[in-house]
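Let us practice reading a record.
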Amino acid sequence: MSSGDERLDATRHNIYGFLPQRKDNGFYIALEFFALVRGVCELNPGMFLNPNSDGKKYRRISHDFARRVACGVLPLAALEGIMDREETLAASQALFSSLLVVSPGQNKLSNNWKTRHFFPFDGEMIHYDALERGRPPKREIIIQEEVFRGAGRWIYAALSRDSNSPRRQVVADRMQSLFETDSSALGRLFRNAATHNVKPVDSNFPDLMSSIDLHEDVSDWPERLRQGVQNIVTREQLPRTSRIRDLMHWMPYCLARHVLALAAATAEIPEPHLAVDLQRTSNQLKTQSQSQVKDFRSIFSKAHLADTPADDAREAQSSTSAMKRANKESGETAGFFTQTLFKVGALNSDGGTRNFTITPPLSAALVAAATAPGKEMNFNHFVDLIATDFKAVIGRPTLVGIKWLDRIDNGVFEKNESLFASQLRASGLLTRYSDSTSMVHREVLP
């Protein structure tokens, strides 16, 4: 690594407490965390979410065999003694490929198995990254980071450093039960497939206390993450798959918003409230949202400059080329932010003219994170809570202090709220009791 790269990494780590990377975005954040859950619980279940890493080990399992079969990169000739017919290989490929996580914008037919991961319907399906090294016939598979670059470790660090010890223990217990292996057909299938993987690697658990700074004195998002995770994992009435899917949306969303909050604080500006538009046609809220997407790019650049040594910062502020360099150097962080929000359903596109939005899966995760298990919340209160706690404006909130609110007509907000209510109702997340009373809930309540 060059001295310039080291300087850049030091600046980004100083601002964000870890290194946000464009490649490590969206569902990969949650999947890396799940891999840590399984890895610790395989070897040291009593140490899960224990902030002390002394003596703690974790196991990394690749599931490279099943992923390569799923992506169609293993010919029958390479499966001697495992499969003997093309029909068997085709059926196995169809089955395994149907279990892969598909992110928005991702090519479902991609055969790059190193970036494809399984949805953890069963604890046996959780796996770590793996890479290919060398050329045939000496090519080998090694367990090493490809898209898991540390964002999942940030989630682990945030949950393990919860000063609310009873909550931390509840989350640890419920998380372990959520990902425990069982005797289901899928569990047995992946247990058998794992016998053809590269050998698992047992490693010392990373020292997250020294490598990750949560900056909780600056951002409230680590605490929001913890409370939301507790609300999600303790929903015993909700199917396990639904709870896992909610976690896969909630955890990356929190981290992306945390990164924005830290950039804003470093640039000495208030944490922005996202303008969330659900309407198809042009309107004032959509225009505001599109403007924010563009402006947020500059927040990351300003944060980068604010944390640059004084002489370099003066040069950057007086030189067009230096400013362009600052924009480029903050590109990894900006890419992490926008790609993560796009993947979890908070941004409508990964390119072009974009605006903040909210898709049904993300709506479900926000309801699960905001409400206690088995409880419901008034819809208007929920919209206000999203604005005050999650800093995302869907309808006109009672909150004051957001400068751009006066630019939006009431009719625009009313239509946006109506569309949001319709989305929640269609997803089974809202019950309308009367013209004036609607309640949101994650479970189907009696």
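A brief commentary: The mean pLDDT is 92.
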